[in-house]
Design a protein that fits this description.
The protein is built from six helices and five strands, in the order E-H-H-H-H-E-E-H-E-E-H. By secondary structure, the chain is mainly alpha-helical. The termini are far apart.
Length: about 190
């Protein structure tokens, strides 16, 4: 597996997806409860297939580490933590076909190793290119998710915009509708 150093957006997305599989995000339901779900996650993100009994535990530990980094976005801490994730996993190389720098996972790297490599590259790339203010908690009042905002304008508010953003929009719509209905009822009673 190779992670191009300038492809930090994809790598940061992998880190975001990983931390948002945790039970605290899903009100107690772990989205990576077994090797089958980990295999599906690995396939979705082009990671090696989990083959070892300890792969799931290693990924769960990594998830906690990455979430802790996102939750405490101090530049020095992010750099130290992300460097630790990548330091023993691979070698920096120049991709000859595109003149891009990349980190290649060492032969025999596990799914947790490859995932740590991607998360580390994503975090380091965002710190360097976009800044530490891009590490955020979800803005939805009922969500405990976190994310790394790699959008151009940097105004992303939700860990999963299609889920959390939609829930907030529906709640706001219902509140407006209820307020309008109540206002119309009061106006009708006054007539």
């Amino acid at each position: 597996m190779q992670v191009a150093l300038d492809d930090y957006v994809r790598a940061a997305g992998v880190a975001t997806d990983l931390v948002n599989t945790a039970p605290e995000v899903w009100h107690g339901e772990d989205k990576l409860p077994d090797l089958e779900s980990l295999a599906a996650f690995a396939e979705l993100h082009a990671l090696p297939e989990p083959t070892r009994p300890g792969d799931l535990r290693a990924v769960h530990r990594l998830r906690v580490t990455v979430r802790d980094l996102i939750d405490h976005p101090d530049q020095a801490r992010l750099i130290t933590g992300a460097t630790a994730l990548t330091s023993s996993i691979g070698d920096v190389t120049l991709l000859t076909d595109s003149a891009r720098w990349a980190v290649s996972a060492r032969p025999g790297a596990t799914v947790a190793d490859s995932l740590a490599l991607a998360c580390g590259v994503g975090i380091l790339g965002v710190v360097q290119s976009l800044g530490v203010e891009r590490f955020r908690a979800c803005g939805a009042p009922t969500c405990r998710g976190a994310f790394i905002d790699t959008t151009r304008p940097g105004r992303r508010r939700y860990c999963m915009p299609g889920l959390c953003g939609n829930r907030v929009n529906v709640a706001n719509h219902r509140a407006r509708k209820l307020s309008q209905d109540g206002h119309q009822k009061v106006v009708g009673e006054m007539s």
